[in-house]
Each structure stands twice: as structure tokens, then as C-alpha cells.
Amino acid sequence: MSELEKAFRKFAMYGDTAATGNDMTGKNFSKMLKDCGVMDGKGVTSTDVDIVFNKVKTKGARTINFAEFQQAVKELCGKRFKGKSPEEALQAVYALMEGKEPANVGVTKTTTAGGVDRLTDTSKYTGSHKERFDESGKGKGLAGREDLTDSSGYVGAYKGSGTYDKKH
Fold first, then answer.
1. Could you please report the per-residue DSSP string of 46-65?
2. What pLDDT is stored for residue 51 in this prediction?
3. For the range 50-55, what are the long-range contacts, defined as Cβ-Cβ under 8 Å and sequence gap of 24 or more?
4. Which has the closest alpha carbon to 105: 42, 54, 40, 35?
5. Over 70: is that where the pLDDT of 139 sits?
6. For the whole prediction, is pTM greater than 0.70?
7. Which of 83, 92, 144, 160 could form a disulfide with 132 if both were Cys (CB 3.0 to 4.6 A apart)?
8. How large is the C-alpha radius of gyration of the chain?
9. Residue 37 and residue 158: Cα distance in Å, rounded?
10. Do 8 and 24 touch, CB atoms closer than 8 A?
11. Exposure string for 115-127, b = 16+ CB within 10 A, e = fewer
């Protein structure tokens, strides 16, 4: 198996767990040409790629095999390398593709802190939940969860509580 065929199989299986690697979808064909630098936005655009893909695939099919892939690359190489002979242009495109793998640029990264760590970080708590923990993050238990009633007989904010017996 050639380096080009290995690259074809890697891109054919990219993003599809059920793919065998023998057939490539239009999306993966476009991704391969973009990742390998064949589709440059000037000489070869995404529209050109889609047109060539639909031209080489069999009618009614959604995928292309390796032989159809080679035909599509032959049609695109002249646009990518203008001024070179068709054989030189084809070899230049093959050189761009050989040994390449699908790139994962721009893929969302997972957070480094675990979900539980973020959810149980008491320094990020707000509102009434903040009242349940002291500065160190240790829970206050029952005292942090409910308003304890003062049964001393004095009004809540009275500053002179406990002074009645001293005066009389």
C-alpha cells in the first residue's frame, strides 16, 4: 500500500466510526485537500473540490473509492500548479498528500479541572450558599444551614441583652 493510499484511508475513516477506509465522503475529501494544502482558496477553492467530487463519483453514490479519488486529484492538480506539466503537477500534489493525517486544529479541549472539583469549590459559591462555609471552605454544619433562634427573651438586634438583672 502506497503512502498516498495510507493517507486516503486515514482521511476516509476520519470522524466516522463505521467507516472501513475504502470509501471517502465529500466532507472528508474536502478536509483532506484542505489539510494537505491542495485547497488554497485561490487556485483551488472548496467549490472546485465539490464540483470535481461530484463529477468523479458514480451517480447516486455518496462516496468515492481510491481509483475515483486519484481521478479527482488528477483533475485538480492542474488548477493547483498552473504552469507545470500534468505529470509534474500530479506528482507535486501527491507529495503534498503523502504521509499526512487528519489534523485536529480548532477542536474543543476538555477542561483540566474535573467536574466535581469545579462544582465543589466553595470559593465560587454565591448568595445563601456562601453562608454555609467558612473561609477555609469547611462547612459550618447546622449553623450554616438554618437561622438559630435566640430564646433569651430579647429582641433580635438588642445590644443590651443580659443587663436587666444587674440593674435590679
1. HHHHHHHHHHHSPTT-SEE-
2. 92
3. 50/26, 52/76, 53/26, 53/29, 54/26
4. 35
5. yes
6. no
7. 144
8. 34
9. 79
10. yes
11. eeeeeeeeeeeee
